[in-house]
Amino acid sequence: PLVSMKEMLIKGKEEGYAVGQFNINNLEFTQAILQAAQEENSPVILGVSEGAARYMGGFKLIVTMVKELMEEYDVTVPVAIHLDHGSSLEKCVQAIHAGFTSVMIDGSHHPLEENIELTKRVVQIAHAVGVSVEAELGRIGGQEDDLTVDAADAFYAIPSECDQLVRETGVDCFAPALGSVHGPYKGEPNLGFDRMKEVMELTGVPLVLHGGTGIPTKDIKKAISLGSAKINVNTESQISSTQAVRDVLNNDGEVYDPRKFLGPARDAIKETVRGKMREFGSSGKA
Ligand code: G3H
Ligand code: ZN
Q1: In which residues is dihydroxyacetone phosphate bound (predicted)?
Q2: Domain enclosing residue 141, as ranges
Q3: Ligand 1 atom closest to Cα of residue 183
Q4: Which run of H or E residues covers position 208?
């Protein structure tokens, strides 16, 4: 069923695994991720950035597409449709109105008080209709769609501020920026585990790890043990699917039927997602 993230993340945190947020970019991504979730018997979060929503034809089309595919594939595992890095109250409301079951309000570029005010307003509206909310503090480096944060501007969240934001807003889950990066890492990631532990102890809510692509398994395990119950992955599916397209086109200069390269792209995404679900421990937990 289509559900909010609330219950699935509480369960994940309690039982020591993380639910993957896999970003969708088109029909094939959506098909692959839903099939992977059902085959792994795993809860799943479909992440939709504002850029990807524009690309696909808007929030309503996405909700319709997801619902139809869930019916077509007899999906029984819990699925959330989540606005990724929502940039404003308006965008969050539009997503909720279209049928999204979860939203992120990313007020991380605002001063703390403004971020809290904005997040509070989103929570008030979202919770009235059973939609879950994620917030962010600190700044996650790297690039994802419209969002680019230079290394110099990225900074780690401050635990006392995280505590204040979570307490005053009532968000369901929370993403403290602690050194993870959107897109490929330059070298090994350097995650702030001490602060993650502090934030977990202070806030008590399920934590979210953005920039899940390229984080070594040992760090994934550690993050989960420190309360990270949601891990976002986008770039890795993009890389694996693009590689599959490249392989087909390089091997066959005559191919013109898009299904001949988009089918393999879809298979590659599915494999990537299944691997992550096993790594995060969410397989078999639906
Ligand atoms: O919000 C989405 C993510 O944090 C994805 O990060 O593209 O590095 O996997 P990634
Ligand atoms: Zn992110």
Answers
A1: 183, 211-213, 232-235
A2: 6-280
A3: 8
A4: strand 207-209
